[in-house]
Amino acid sequence: MDSGSVLQRGVRVPLSGHFRGTRAGPTVRVGSVKPSASNADPAVRRSDDAHKVYPRQFDRDDFWSQIKRTVNGKPVSEEDIEMIVTQYADHLDLSSRDHLLDLGCGNAALAARTFDRIASYTGVDFSSYLLEIANEYFKPDASVTYIENDAASFVKDCPEPGAYDKLLCYGCMSYLSREELLGLIETLHDRFSNLERAFFGNIPNTSKAPEFFARRDVKDYDLDDPKSPIGVWWDPDELSDAASAFGFTAKVVHMPEQFYGATYRFDLLLKRSGDGGA
Ligand SMILES: C[S@@+](CC[C@H](N)C(=O)[O-])C[C@H]1O[C@@H](n2cnc3c(N)ncnc32)[C@H](O)[C@@H]1O
């Protein structure tokens, strides 16, 4: 396959048929996503047990363990959770008229903390169990809806893309292949015409991977595997450049230093160009 690739700080990243560019040079789009055997059908492309079966071992109200928001096996602190909420709510500039779309919502314990700031909420996840928890604990009224679907499929096929003003995708995008995530961002831009802002949070940063794995004494690692525990790692500038090439104004943002994941991860804020810049 003539996929094209870039070397990002020692890591070769394939950009198969969809997007080719380097951080140094101009970004160039070269046509639409060319599905490969591994990503052609999101429904069959991978074993998703890590998300669909794993959460079942925990108590129904052990929300952070279910979605692996843990450090040394213990749920992260309330301060860490509140830092995440502040980060996405501020950058999304949530308001009482917003319909928030949450891709990879999990059990929705995170997004539920901002239900009172928005008009309506739609959470999408492919884990029926996590959505069962979401419906049991985090469905205050009819303004909150959950849909069981693959995130990339939903964005491609949802019948009312114009219904959403803001988008949250927290801790989920690393479980999409590079092509899928780029395709998803492009489709968001092209189909979701009323989407003002999108916040992609907790993205693993390729430049921090050597340090991350060295600290764990792991020598063999793959930064390109959506099925691995952490998923696909990204270079912040390259992801931001790609989103800009699709027409968004993109800005890489970081969590406060004291946040447990601040060292190895970054966030990406997208605004529709013309919305005052990112
Ligand atoms: C780490 S959890 C984050 C959940 C929630 N966004 C949060 O931050 O609390 C990742 C979520 O992404 C979901 N997920 C992973 N890949 C997905 C896909 N291709 N389509 C839909 N959901 C997916 C998993 O089921 C899981 O609920």
Report on the structure:
With 278 residues, the protein is α/β, with parallel strands linked by helices. It has a domain at 68-102 and 150-272: Rossmann fold. 26% of the residues lie in helices and 21% in strands. The protein has eight helices and 13 strands. The strands form four sheets. Strands 9-8-7-10-11-13-12 form a seven-stranded mixed sheet, with helices on both faces. Strands 1-2 form a two-stranded antiparallel ribbon. Strands 3-4 form a two-stranded antiparallel ribbon. Helix 5 packs parallel to helix 6. The longest helix is centred in the first third of the chain and has 15 residues, at 78-92. The radius of gyration is 18 Å and the shape is globular. The structure holds S-adenosylmethionine (SAM).
Would you summarize the structure shown here?
This protein is of the alpha/beta class and 278 residues long.
Give average pLDDT, whole number. Answer: 85
User: Helix- and strand-based class?
Assistant: alpha/beta
Order of helices and strands: EEEEHHEEHEEHEHEHEHHEE
Q: Report the CATH topology name of the domain at 68-102 and 150-272.
A: Rossmann fold
How many helices? 8
Tell me the distance between the termini.
36 Å
Please estimate the helix content.
Answer: 25-40%
Rg measurement, Å:
18 Å
Q: Which hetero ligands occur in this complex?
A: S-adenosylmethionine
